[in-house]
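Please, structure for the following, as tokens.
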Amino acid sequence: MKTYLNEKWAKFNSRYLLSNYGRWFSLKSMKIVKQNPNNSGYLRLNAKTKDGRIISFTHIAVVYMFGDCNGKRISPKALLSDMGLTIDHRDGNKLNNMQSNLELVTFQENINRKYNKPVLENSVVKCQKRFIEEMSEIF
């Protein structure tokens, strides 16, 4: 298995390891597991185990296992929504699940950030309405 500089691995359960780079490793096949995005574009592990099916969003699992970019950790038994928190992909790219890109924020802070940064879709930056309005005022 190829590992990257500063990549750390932790045991997620009896069959999978998870890295702080957002990669899953199967202890059964001894390979990196391919992740698939859901309809909203978030990567997830979708696999069966002896206990049943696991569907785990990678960004949430990384924060539970390693903490966010600031080292904030939450209990695995805690629900983010009950705490009024969500996870922000700082660069706006939902496919970048590195610990350094994930930050625990309030719902309101996440909305404010989303409004103020470009949306990445298929590696093309799309301008949001506010940016277009500001640029049209300048020119």
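Residues 122-126 have pLDDT under 50 and may be disordered. The domain at 9-138 is CATH 3.90.75.20 (Homing Intron 3 (I-Ppo) Encoded Endonuclease; Chain A).
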